[in-house]
Amino acid sequence: MVRAALIGLTSSNVMADNIAAVDALVRDTAAQGATFISTPETTHLMEMNRQRVLENTFFEGDDPGLKAFCALAAELGIWLHIGSLITKVAEGRLANRAFVIGPDGAIKARYDKIHLFDVDLGNGEAYRESALYNAGEKAVTVETPFGTLGLSICYDLRFPYLYRSLAMAGANILLVPAAFTKPTGEAHWHALLRARAIETGSFVLAAAQGGLHATGRRTYGHSLAVSPWGEIIADGGEAGGVMMLDIDLDLVAKARQTIPSLGHGRPFETTSLKLS
After folding, report:
1. Residue 202 belongs to a domain
2. Predicted pLDDT of residue 125
3. How many domains does the chain have?
4. Does a structural domain hold residue 275?
5. Where would you tag: which of 21, 38, 259, 274 has the fewest CB atoms within 10 A of its CB?
6. Whether residue 154 lies in the annotated active site
7. What is the Cα 43 distance to its own chain's centre?
């Protein structure tokens, strides 16, 4: 059993302010007994303008937020999952990168978002992540004393084969930090998270950005915790804040024994028939 917490945010485009806000929330949450804490996608910078993003991001080794979060985890003796930081990987190119930091302050795992959000939503909102970000190429799990984490970020949620692969590799807690848009969140967020939990018999923990950001973007919020049976354990609502929950991995074993679909996959071919 582990006491976990999801922190919902409404991050701004001022990195120092976001770092300070996360620091205060993590400290308060750890004081309430949480030993594993997860934050949303783009934890320390929410910026849509390409030039300003490039001007306000850092290579990993120079990132002030990452340094602060590693020091914070070590000071408090907690496991800290930073849902993602916008990280410079080359001049003019970025990665949307998640970090798992151990209680010694060391980075235990990194994950670069595999599936990039290139879409026109039809209401004036358009996103072209591939114009600025490099896609990740590796799915990542990391073993901890309280369970094996499977890492993902936001738009990855729409690709169920990723989560099956993570579960087959041993993950029993799937992490989905996000900054879902309000229209897509209202339509699909709860359904997709519940589906990923049911399909894999895993806990799904999704810390989310929510509300109106300084850039004018509005995100859906609703940080969510889902049981391996697909039940919503906690919903943070649009406003965000902190959700505390206890994770009992016996529920994973029970769900996977009842519905053992992870062991029933079979190879198959697809036949396309054309009718004249």
Report:
1. yes
2. 66
3. 1
4. no
5. 274
6. yes
7. 10
The DSSP element (H or E) to which 7 belongs, if any, is strand 2-8
Residue whose structure tokens are 């996000």 = 178
Q: Which domain holds residue 166?
A: 2-259
Assess whether 113 carries a catalytic annotation.
yes
Q: Which two tokens stand for residue 231?
A: 């039940």
Instruction: List strand residue ranges (DSSP E) for 155-235, in order.
Output: 173-175, 203-206, 210-212, 218-220, 224-226, 232-235
Which one, of 13, 25, 156, 27, lies nearest residue 97 by Cα?
Answer: 156
What's the average model confidence in pLDDT over 75-79?
A: 98
Choosing from 47, 108, 154, 238, the catalytic residue is 154
Beta carbons within 10 angstroms of residue 33's beta carbon = 10
The tally of CA atoms less than 13 A away on the side-chain side of residue 259 is 12
Return d(Cα 199, Cα 148) in angstroms, integer: 17
- Check 113, 129, 182, 238 and give the catalytic one: 113
**Is residue 116 very low, low, confident or very high in pLDDT (cuts 50, 70, 90)?**
very high
Per-residue model confidence (pLDDT) at position 44:
98
**Two structure tokens written together for 141:** 């799990």
Say yes or no to pLDDT of 121 above 90.
no
Assigned domain for 91 exists: yes
Is 41 annotated as catalytic?
yes
226, part of any domain: yes
CA distance 135 to 264: 31
Average pLDDT score over the chain = 95
Q: Could you tell me which of 32, 19, 26 has the C-alpha nearest to residue 63?
A: 19
List the CATH number of the domain containing 50.
3.60.110.10
Residue 238 reports pLDDT greater than 80: yes
3-state secondary structure of 240: coil
Within the chain, residue ranges assigned H as helices are 15-31, 50-55, 64-76, 160-168, 182-184, 190-200, 250-258
